[in-house]
Amino acid sequence: MLKQTEGSHAVAEAIALCRPQVICAYPITPQTHIVEGLGEMVKAGELQGCEFINVESEFAALSVAIGASAAGVRTYTATASQGLLFMAEAVYNAAGLGLPIVMTIGNRAIGAPINIWNDHSDSMSMRDAGWIQLYAETNQEALDLHIQAFRLAEELSCPVMVCMDGFILTHAYDRVDVPNQQEVDAYLPRYEPRQILDPADPVSIGAMVGPEAFMEVRYLSHHKQLRALTLIPHLAAEFQKRFGRNSGGLIRTYRSEDAETIVVALGSVNGTIQEVVDEMRNDGVRIGSVSICSFRPFPLAPLREALCNAKRVVVLEKCLAVGLGGIVSDGVRKSLSGIALNGYTVIAGLGGRAITRGSLRRLFEDAERDELEQVTFLDLNADVISAQLERESASRRTGPTAEAILRRIGTVASSIG
Amino acid sequence: MVSGAEILSVAAFLEGRYAQAFPSFGSERMGAPVMAFCRIDDKEIRLREPVLAPDALIIQDQTLLHQVDLFGGLPTRGFVILNSVKTLDELGLGGFARGVQHYRMCTLPATELALKHVGRAVPNAALLGGFAAITGVVKLESVLAAIGEKFPKPIADKNIAAASEAFDLARKTLEVADVEAD
What we know:
Shape of chain B: globular
Low-confidence stretches of chain B: none
Strand content of chain A: 15-25%
Oligomer: heterodimer
Distance between the termini of chain B: 35 Å
CATH class of the largest domain in chain A: Alpha Beta
Number of helices of chain B: 6
Number of helices of chain A: 15
Order of helices and strands of chain A: EHEHEHEHHEHEHEEHHEEHEEHEHEHEHH
């Protein structure tokens, strides 16, 4: 059924259609509307057979989710930013124990300085925790990915994070097609746990493992993700057959077949990139783009195939590996081992900085001329940076950086620009 | 403001069009300036940048006129619907309507209409009624249906009354402007 609704609400409806039995969550912007919506559905009796557990923190939220999942029920939670960091230990545990929890990340920056707006720093910080990570381009895809995520998680016994851009998607009203219960039931069978805490057939879960077996347990987590490289496209294809929509998969290419310049990115910024690709194609520029949906497992082979004939690859990242540059770029360059082409990393949109068509167009034109630095910061205000560096070299006690910069730009309230 | 953009997107959706509404929270404090955006198109909307060059501008708080460059990016002949009991000339804005910008502007006492019909200072519905009248981008019926979806029945009815009166008022303003132009 077509609806015009908020991204968070669309996701809440998708989760409800997946018949979760335990939902536990702690509110944090910009994810809050999702679990609020689910809480309302449970309270109103619209979501039957589900227990909504209020917890005292994000650490508790995922710990309760681990307990519920180990007891053999379909389990969901959601968080963002500092909330994900606060549950970090449990994030690793959920994956190490092989519990198929699905968690939404409403992608948001990490402080300090505190910032509630979108970038990918939060989910990227947990990229190696053993969870599968899928990034949604649109609200429709966010909705669809959650349905696929439970199936994927449960087939592999591996937790899955569905990452959607905070505010840009979570708070956007868009058109979405919400499937009905029969359709979702046909795609997502009842959860059959591989392991279960059952008094009638007792097991212990969470053994101490020493050097004699730790490597093997870890390798099997890796092996699971390698299997996901086959399973993810398979589930996306089945989804398309049943629901008629191309959602999910490992990567999606856009006008990239004969492209000399290919832009690679994750999440909602791909829509804006595609608009710019169309503009430049109309002017005769051979440019295309690739959207990475599955960041973990990382799709090395499909990326190599999509990028190998380009002259240059621009990886646009909403996360900064401080002291290095990009995170996604590392994987992309690994996928191109032995292939000579120019690779550029662009850090963009940190802390909600708007990524505009105008800025992207200038950036891609610079790339065309191979005039980009190895690492570029899109729309960085160079005057502010140099003024602050001058202050810092002129005197010792310059005070806190963030406050000094806010004073300089005269901001009393933040702006989008 | 945010729900105003959302309701507008629902109104456009009800007419079979694609629409995207999203907020830009300037600050986490009460009373801070807030912007929300709405795009309407006949095809799927992929663009995710803030609206930088709006075709129409709805201004909920006239005191912002002196704080922010509200008309930045608005093209010649752009639409402006301003919540105020004053006329454009009283606000010193008449020049924008008559001058080179030739904005299609009107003021509406949206807060007063809200107080009259809803009993609270919630001018969104009235402003959207005015928007439908001035721009013709969406029909009044669609705005009213979208309000009906957003609120429970008694509150929806009150907002619908406010939107309808605003629509009529804005229509009259438009007629006056047309006569003056002739």
